[in-house]
Design brief:
homodimer; 197 residues; DNA-binding
Chain lengths: 197, 197
DNA sequence: AATAAAGGTTAACAGCGTTTGGAAAGCCCA
DNA sequence: TGGGCTTTCCAAACGCTGTTAACCTTTATT
């Protein structure tokens, strides 16, 4: 019975089309411009259909957020296995986050509720920033022997630096000026790493 | 002619009532719940009246943002005159920002577009973060003799640390856990100041 | 072929920011 | 005191939004 399979494939296709369309509209006109009706228009379905794939608009955003964090986390794991020294790993991760924010700003915006992207349900966000089995946390712990509590503090500061820098840059700098901010960011990251070692 | 004066007083009163009501609703139910119609309901006017005081909802938010930044800046100036040592000044300023975010979270949210508060016009924000005549910038410059460019970089990192810490805390931590985060924040700030000196 | 199920749409609800047109009230001058 | 004018104010509407209910039409099963 290939019919059922075909239908499931179609379902997955439509679902990913919805996500893709939401991102496209957001990239073009900002998240404020993303509406259920506009997405429905693009995928050539009526608005109620979207509710067969996503419980609500908020859940759609949460899906995009979760996918974004998952993609980042995969990259983190890759870096962890490619490089040995934790200071190198952390620098690579910082670079990786920066690149992500430049290449997929609309996803980054949903992940951190920036620029009018607002996803109310925070479970994914909170969980993802958590220290449990977190590659970044582990790298900081490897950087220099210290207590778990101390590592957590440093980990927290790491995120403040990273998230703070990128989000401030994203919201205050015009698009053309962003490449100029990258070396300043990376330099700050390196100094931070040195200060912790 | 006291009549005109009375009317102007009334106008100012209504205007500040609008701002006050917006903040109250936001504090109670979040910025997502703030609507022109609800504000109108509370101040016992019809919705169109609000447009005699504010060009748009966005401009209302921008006013609240500007007032928030102005209040902070006043505090900064006060600190600047009370304390001599720049490291003490900066620590006091960090404490001041933290207190502000705890005492008036709804204003802080508008100032930095957090938690569903979204003010599109960024002029005030960009200008306020600027280095021109900025007390924080000057304090960092006094901290240790260095080039203007170097000061600007440090100033930028200062804001990442401060803003990053508070906004991450605000969005991830439940209300009761926030006091617990304060010493971690202040310790991070002090370490940052030491690392720059 | 008749019946059940799935897929999809139209229309509506309640709410939003914002604008228009006109009513009511207050004021000034004769 | 009455008429005209200005100011103050609001009901209603427009075009959006997320979401739901009811219905129709196509597809699959018995």
């Amino acid at each position: 019975m290939g019919i059922i399979e075909r239908r499931e494939r179609l379902k997955k296709q439509v679902r990913s089309d919805i996500v893709k369309t939401a991102k496209e509209i957001a990239r073009e006109d900002g998240w404020q411009a993303v509406s259920i009706r506009k997405i429905a228009d693009v995928i050539e379905y009526s608005p109620p259909i979207l509710y067969e794939y996503f419980e609500s608009k908020d859940k759609l955003l949460e899906t995009i957020r979760a996918e974004g964090f998952a993609a980042l986390r995969d990259e983190f794991e890759r870096i962890k296995h490619v490089y040995r020294q934790p200071e190198k790993q952390l620098a690579e991760i910082a670079q990786c986050i920066w690149n992500f924010s430049v290449e997929q700003p609309e996803v980054f915006q949903v992940m951190f509720n920036l620029e009018g992207a607002y996803c109310q349900s925070k479970q994914v966000y909170i969980q993802e920033m958590n220290i449990i089995k977190n590659p970044v946390w582990e790298m900081i712990a490897t950087l220099r022997p210290k207590s778990g509590e101390m590592v957590t503090k440093t980990y927290y500061e790491w995120w403040c630096l990273t998230y703070g820098f990128i989000s401030i840059t994203m919201t205050t700098q015009p698009r053309h000026a962003i490449p100029h901010a990258e070396p300043i960011y990376m330099e700050g990251v390196r100094r931070f790493i040195r200060s912790v070692m």
